[in-house]
Structure formats: structure tokens, C-alpha cells
Amino acid sequence: MILQHRSTRSARRPLLCTAATLILTLAAGTAAANGYPYGSPTPVDGSFSCKDFDTANLLTEFTVVPPADGVIRHNDGTLDVVTIHYPSTNGFIVDWIQMVAGPNIHHVVVRNEYGGNAYSYDPPRMEDRGLRAPAAPGITVATTPPNNAAKGVSYCYSVPRVGVDGCTLGYWKVRKHHDSWPAAYNIGSPLQATFGANAFDETFLEALNYKGGPGIEGGKRILLKQAVAALLNSASDGVAYPLTTAQVVTQVTFALNSADRGLMISLASTLDAYNNQGCPLN
User: Fold this and answer.
1) Cβ neighbours for 92, distance < 8 A, ≥ 6 positions apart
2) pTM
3) Can the peptide bond before residue 124 be classed as cis, meaning omega within 30 degrees of 0?
4) Which of 124, 158, 192 is the last residue of a domain?
5) Over the chain, what is the mean pLDDT?
6) Domain hosting residue 131, numbered range
7) What confidence tens digit (pLDDT) does each residue in 200-212 have?
């Protein structure tokens, strides 16, 4: 069931000083003050890949190795992205900007020898700042800057494909869209009736509002909020979702029964990307 694939090909070339990258570089030191990064990091292990459950083969994972510091442009033939890796008083930071529209970046994972931090974008974004790899165990920013220099940055992206749709969990949870829910489900549908006893004893609507969190329980919440959106997409006559309802239920139940947080986060990342393929519903 688990697919392994990883693209590590990168082409480096000198960066022309465009206005966009100049702004990004100048603003790097004030990232936190301006609301960056956009998402909170989700800790993942070093082998994490958004391709693990990509049964529809919609995703590409492009891994680049940033230098000790500086601005480097990377291109894998489809994705064109600038990575900026630099030290700060709070440890090493990664900023990035997508140079050409087209591919949709769903996740960026910043890795080092201690594991990785996965940043998710729902909806996809063209840039972010202030990303960090994990700090060494026992080291906190409050005591001393962590030795957390990034060893690699992975960009998980998809390219829009004709005939493939996916509405986000944000779409499905909004009250004005509840009339778009497929007839088999409603906001009060119990999670356990669909995903088994290892799901929480709560409703679909409650799951769509989960915030995540640490440990196995947090992993379940991160997965189930995407799983409900995936299920609704797959059951909707108006959405050309890349998975069937049976596939969604089988994969989610398998991950929940595993009690493996890493497995849950991996599947959640794939469903998140599938749920951002574009919503044809009004």
C-alpha cells in the first residue's frame, strides 16, 4: 500500500536579482513580525515523504540541499523555486519563493539530522519565510540558538490536471456549503461509523474543525480532518476526485489502526494535496 518515490534532482544556477527575490531577502529578518511562517510546523521523521500514499500519482517531491547561507535558485524542469538559508540569533532559517506560477506547492519539509518539520499550505502559496529544521534534543531558543542548520528542503507539489478535482476541508465545513454534501453523509455523521473504532467518537463537522496536536491523538486529528474532506469529495457527483470512497475509507482506517503517527501524517499530507486540486462546486 505504501509507495516510495523521491525526486532529488536539482539544477542550480546564479540567481538574477529580481524584484521578488530582493524583497524576500531584505524582509528575511522581519519574517516573524509579519506573520510568517504561514503554518505551524508538524514534526516528522527524516524519511517522511508526501509520496508514500500517492496512489493517484499526482504529486512530485523535489528535494534540494541549500548551502550554508545565501540565495540559490533550483529547478527540476517543472518547479522553479528560490531557497534562502541563513543563520539568525534563533538558529538557521529557510525562506522560499516560487518564481513561476503553475505548480501548486502543498508542503515544504525542512530536514536535518534530527528529523524534519513539515509546513502545509492550504490553499497552496507562492512563498513563505521563517521555516526551521528541528533543534537538537534538549536545546531551546530561550537558552541558546539551536544548531539546526538544514540538510535538505523538500517541496511537495502538483500540477493542475484536467479532470481531477478536490474541494478543501475549508469548503466543506462552511455552513453555506452544507447543502453540497453528498446525500450519504451529513454534519452529524459519526466518525466511527465510517472509519472504525480507532477514530474519535465525534462527528464529521467536529473533525473538519480539528487543530491537530502532538502524539498519536494529534496525528489522528490531523488525518481525520483531511479524511472527512476526502470522503465528501469522493462521494460527490460533482467532484472528479482521484480516489474512490472505498479507497479513502481503506487507507484512513489502515492508518488509524496502525497507531503510527508518522503514517497518519504521511496519509494526511497526501489527502491534503488531493483536497486542493480545485473545487468545481459553488
Assistant:
1) 85, 86, 132, 133, 148, 149, 150
2) 0.85
3) no
4) 158
5) 88
6) 11-158
7) 999 999 999 999 8
